[in-house]
Amino acid sequence: MKDRLFCKVLENIEIASNIYKIEIEKVEMLQNIKAGQFLNIKCDDALLLRRPISISYVETDRIGLVIRKSGKGTVVLCNKRKGEMLDVLGPLGNGFTIDEKEQRVIVIGGGIGTAPLLELVKRLEGKDVTVLLGYKTEPYLVNEFEEYVRDVKVATEDGSFGHKGYVTELFIEAIKENSAEMVYACGPEIMLKEVQRICSKYEVKSQISIEERMACGVGACLVCTCKVKAEEKGVKYVRTCKDGPVFSGEEVIFHD
Amino acid sequence: MTKIDMCVDLNGFKMKNPVTVASGTFGFGREYAEYVDLNQIGAISVKGLTLEERQGNPTPRVVETPMGMINSVGLQNPGVEYFIKHELPYLSQFDTKIIANINGNTIEEYCKMAEILSKTSVDALELNISCPNVKSGGVAFGINPDMVYKVTKSVRENCGKYLIVKLSPNVSDIKEIGIAAENGGADCISLINTLIGMGIDIETQKPILARGSGGLSGPAVKPVAVRMVYEVTKVVNIPVIGMGGIMDYADAVEFFLAGADAISVGTANFINPKVTMDILKGIEGYMERKGYTCVKEFVGKLDF
């Protein structure tokens, strides 16, 4: 039976301002991880609920998490030191689907949403991949993506690195130049909405990973629902944690 | 050494142990079956059911608070017929009692559901007159003793199953609500449901939950729950299932000492999917340490 897993923190470094790369021990039970899955982590005894953190990359002996220090939970996580133990549930969620037949793919990440795309890109080896990364000002993980993909482009909102503007502008260019059979995206809702619009306009299939506040992480509590299109009734609520976090771009209905 | 007997008998409702799981925190058992042997749980109160399918409230539906969480799910569920056809057969394969938690907008809806479910293999019905997250029905039935009496009595007449009434803590006097449920014909009382709470984002100056307020659960509500179990068990003669913020065996024992005949674990499942098993073992350890052979020996044993 599945259980909570206790994994040792192997490394924790701040790779950009308020962005931490935490590597944890890949204990034996943490097997068959798919790109796009997440861990539900108990940060601290003082914080009741677990925090869902996407898996950024998987190595033989370790799992990499890239976390933006923002709320109470991530502040505690980002302060974890080497040698401390993390209480994790996972891997959870559906993860990205990779179709062997699709050769040309575009991967778009915005901000901390770039994190789970790293493992995805590793697994897209052999395909014609374009990676587009967008940040407010300071980029991170770019070198890591470049290890696997030659065609990596960066956009920053203030122009401090790469294209000045939004990553979705790079996306339109990329799609016009060489359309794709599948688009993978993770990032802020405003970016995902735009990716959805562009994919629909250019008739490209997409898989997008969304974020929602969670509690149980296993599909029982129904707090993390996401609205999707349904055949009969028009809309239905599905569970981001169990049915997602990756959904087909065409089906997600974003908040207004 | 005498063998410890964990079985409890709540006036004819027999469970293999007094550790149950609370409605809304365990789905229909499927998700947690990967983590816990459902055969080891005394009873499972399923996700709150309504006559028709409900999509629930918009998100955000959850906010964490100091040692608690506020949820505003809004009774999202596939409806009673779907439950009977697709979830009940799955749950029935396990050797545990199944409690169907029912919710209505009107007394007629409660009665209709009781009638439908009485023809199935569920072991008990839990009348939820305490859900804080729906516009009509729910807690509206649970805050007035006359209404509690009326809805309990009506459901009783349409119910061939063991009937549990789940009380709302959002009342001025929980004792009279408990008495009303007993007089209405309840076989058992469960309490507490969540306390109505609210969280505000000071930057946007808006509530964090899409619906404004929601139900507070977790360790933060435990002292309130223990007090209410204590008060209610003093004035009613039917069994009580106590719940509210139970995280470990010690919390559970507090409820037994306060007078609960069984306990229910809710929010703690989210943090540790196996917590029910830890609590069960812990209660056994406590009994061994204190020399008890059955749970009844320390129910209501509060020395006060």
UniProtKB/TrEMBL annotation, chain A:
Which InterPro entries does its entry note?
Cyt_c3_hydrogenase_gsu, Dihydroorotate_DH_ele_sf, Dihydroorotate_DH_Fe-S-bd, Dihydroorotate_DHASE_ETsu, FAD-bd_FR_type, FNR_nucleotide-bd, OxRdtase_FAD/NAD-bd, PyrK_electron_transfer
PROSITE patterns attached to this UniProt entry: FAD_FR
Q: Give the family this protein belongs to, as stated in its UniProt record.
A: Belongs to the PyrK family.
Tell me the name of the encoding gene: pyrK
A molecular-function term among this protein's GO annotations: flavin adenine dinucleotide binding
**Does the keyword section mention Iron-sulfur?**
yes
Could you say which residues bind FAD here? Answer: 51-54, 66-68, 73-74
Per UniProt, the cofactor note for this protein states: Binds 1 [2Fe-2S] cluster per subunit. Binds 1 FAD per subunit.
Query: Would the keyword Nucleus turn up in this protein's UniProt record?
Result: no
Q: Pfam families attached here?
A: DHODB_Fe-S_bind, NAD_binding_1
Function description: Responsible for channeling the electrons from the oxidation of dihydroorotate from the FMN redox center in the PyrD type B subunit to the ultimate electron acceptor NAD(+).
Lineage, please?
Bacteria, Bacillati, Bacillota, Clostridia, Peptostreptococcales
- Please report the organism this UniProt entry assigns to the protein: Marinisporobacter balticus
The positions annotated for binding [2Fe-2S] cluster are 216, 221, 224, 241
Its recorded name reads Dihydroorotate dehydrogenase B (NAD(+)), electron transfer subunit
- Subunit architecture: Heterotetramer of 2 PyrK and 2 PyrD type B subunits.
Which Gene3D superfamilies does the record match to this protein?
A: Dihydroorotate dehydrogenase, electron transfer subunit, Nucleotide-binding domain of ferredoxin-NADP reductase (FNR) module, Translation factors
* Keywords linked to the UniProt accession: 2Fe-2S, Electron transport, FAD, Flavoprotein, Iron, Iron-sulfur, Metal-binding, Pyrimidine biosynthesis, Transport
Automatic annotation (TrEMBL), chain B:
Domain of life assignment: Bacteria
* UniProt catalytic activity: (S)-dihydroorotate + NAD(+) = orotate + NADH + H(+); (S)-dihydroorotate + A = orotate + AH2
Tell me its cofactors.
FMN
Active site residues according to the UniProt entry: 131
| Cofactor: record remark | Binds 1 FMN per subunit.
Binding of FMN, residues:
23, 47-48, 101, 128, 166, 192, 218, 244-245, 266-267
Keywords from the named record: Cytoplasm, Flavoprotein, FMN, NAD, Oxidoreductase, Pyrimidine biosynthesis
Q: Does the keyword Cytoplasm apply?
A: yes
- Residues in Dihydroorotate dehydrogenase catalytic domain copies: 7-286
**Pathways involved:** Pyrimidine metabolism; UMP biosynthesis via de novo pathway; orotate from (S)-dihydroorotate (NAD(+) route): step 1/1
Q: Does the keyword Cytoplasm belong to this entry?
A: yes
Compartments, as annotated in UniProt: Cytoplasm
Instruction: Give the EC number(s) under which this enzyme is classified.
Output: 1.3.-.-
**One GO biological process from the UniProt record?**
'de novo' pyrimidine nucleobase biosynthetic process
> What's its top-level EC category?
oxidoreductase
Which GO cellular component terms, listed alphabetically, does the Swiss-Prot or TrEMBL entry include?
Answer: cytoplasm
* GO MF annotations in UniProt: dihydroorotate dehydrogenase (NAD+) activity
Residues holding substrate = 47, 71-75, 128, 193-194
What's this protein's function? Catalyzes the conversion of dihydroorotate to orotate with NAD(+) as electron acceptor.
Q: Which family does it belong to?
A: Belongs to the dihydroorotate dehydrogenase family. Type 1 subfamily.
User: What name has this protein been given in UniProt?
Assistant: Dihydroorotate dehydrogenase
Native species? Marinisporobacter balticus
